[in-house]
Amino acid sequence: MVGTTSSGPAGSPDTRREHLGHVVFITAAAAIGGFLFGYDSAVINGAVTGIQRHFEVGAVVTGFVVAIALLGSAVGAWIAGGLADRWGRTRTMQVAAVLFAVSSVGQALPFGIWDLAFWRVLAGAGIGMASVLGPAYIAEVAPPAYRGRLGSFQQLAIVLGIAVSQLVNYAIAQTVGGDVNNELLGIQAWQWMLGACLVPALLYLLFASVIPESPRFLVAAGRSPQARQVLAEVEAEGVDLDARVAEIEQSLRLEHRPRLRDLRGPAFGLLPIVWIGITLSVFQQFVGINVIFYYSSALWQSVGINQSDSLLISFSTSIINIVGTFIAIALVDRIGRRPLLMIGSLGMAVALAAAAWAFSAGVPRGETVTLPELQGTVALVAAHVFVLFFALSWGVVVWVLLGEMFPNRIRAAALSVAAAAQWVANWLITVSFPSLAEWSLAGAYVGYAVFAALSLVFVLVKVRETKGRRLEEMG
User: Fold this and answer.
1) Taking phi first (over 0 means left), then psi (-120 to 50 degrees means alpha), and beta for anything else, what does residue 468 get?
2) What 3-state class would DSSP assign to 285?
3) Which of 160-169, 266-275, 282-291, 313-322 has the lowest mean pLDDT?
4) Buried (b) or exposed (e) across 232-257, using 16+ Cβ within 10 A?
5) Secondary structure (DSSP) of 29-43
6) Is 216 helix (H, G, I), strand (E, B) or coil?
7) Global confidence as pTM
8) What CA–CA distance (Å, rounded) separates 347 from 455?
9) Positive or negative torsion for Cα 440, 451, 269, 133
10) 8 Å CB contact between 134 and 36
């Protein structure tokens, strides 16, 4: 059997563009799961104040309801690897999309605060599954030369989801006069914000139903002819498809379906590479990035900015997030993963320290805090600089690394554990922030700055470069 296909000169510019265009389409479709992640993460930002007023709850309960979705995400991430290896990547994506669609309707029409919490857990489970499936699928279909940039689609989709949700929140708030507790067609504005999540969920379901299955899953499932067909669609002209299938088979030859027991090792019960993935995930969250996207509206209101303007500022940080993500996409395959992480860690540490200094000058005025003009300007600039450095480094690179750093035999299981750790870390930061902010907003930001500095040390000591290496070389 001939292992290549040919419709023109092998490797010609036209055929390379055709193949790359197809790969870009299917990776972008898979990354819609990241869009859901970003949309759901940030949509609650606009709804927090409305939920708190509607249900008359305090900071602790508010933090719990906001953060409870992240526990569902941890569970979803935990089980996604096993489901993906059993059912396939695309079928599991469809399940995640259905969970998110159903929960979107539930969140829009809650009977009470605990009912809302249940639907947020269900939404979180779908998002957690998508957070694992996107990077794994993209890494498995992307050619090595483009894998970093294509892997960046996951984070690009996340930041686009954040920006779109902030824009939708602002538009809904403006429609009802700037107060998210005002009603529109019989329900309050914050309910419309949460219900709008249904639209991207249905798009994810649609695209997950049309993209091809991962060739590595197909080989592992004994469906090599189908894997060869998919490889013909995504690999460049002139590649020996039989050799590529044989290479994947060789890397999987000794593999049984990955289980958590396969991750056991001498380093506190896990393989060292798994601990590196877990630590990367934890640092990505412990710098406090999601405080900006979950609570920035309430944060800016607390320092004297009105509700409508606070939503607009939140949207501006989302635009900065997108700009930083495009910078990362342009650089990740050129300068590598480690240099971007180190640049980001240093930039975030400085920006967070500046924000901590600015918030330390807050003057209490009733239930709010007012910042002097200089410190207020510094706080706004520092928040945007922090988001920029996060987006051009840890926001993109962690997802790229998690999709490619693990050996084939444990990739799905290890990625599930690392992503679950990320969601737990996200939950810890999210649930603790309202209470920390009441205690000391500046103190909270000092803590995030310390973690940013520690992340630089960790990259220097523990993270290996993966730029340009085949997945079959990882070990």
Assistant:
1) left
2) helix
3) 266-275
4) bebbbbebebeebbeebeebeeebee
5) HHTHHHHHHHHHHHH
6) helix
7) 0.69
8) 11
9) positive
10) no
From the list 420, 143, 144, the residue with the least C-alpha distance to 274 is 420
C-beta of residue 122 within 8 angstroms of C-beta of residue 67: no
**Residue 399 Cα to chain centre, angstroms:** 7
Rounded distance between C-alpha atoms, residue 347 and residue 335, angstroms:
17
Rg (CA), the chain: 22
Q: Phi-psi region for residue 238, left (φ > 0), alpha (ψ -120 to 50) or beta?
A: left
Could you tell me the two tokens for 191? Answer: 């309910």
The whole-angstrom separation of Cα 420 and Cα 77 is 5
Which runs of consecutive H residues, i.e. helices, occur in 176-212? 189-195, 198-208
Place of tokens 């050619």: 143
Q: Which tens digits make up the pLDDT trace of 82-141? A: 888 888 888 999 999 999 999 999 999 998 888 899 999 999 899 889 878 887 888 787
Give residue 204's identity as a one-letter amino acid code: Y
Collect all residues with Cβ–Cβ distance below 8 Å to 160 and sequence separation of at least 6.
Answer: 35, 38, 322
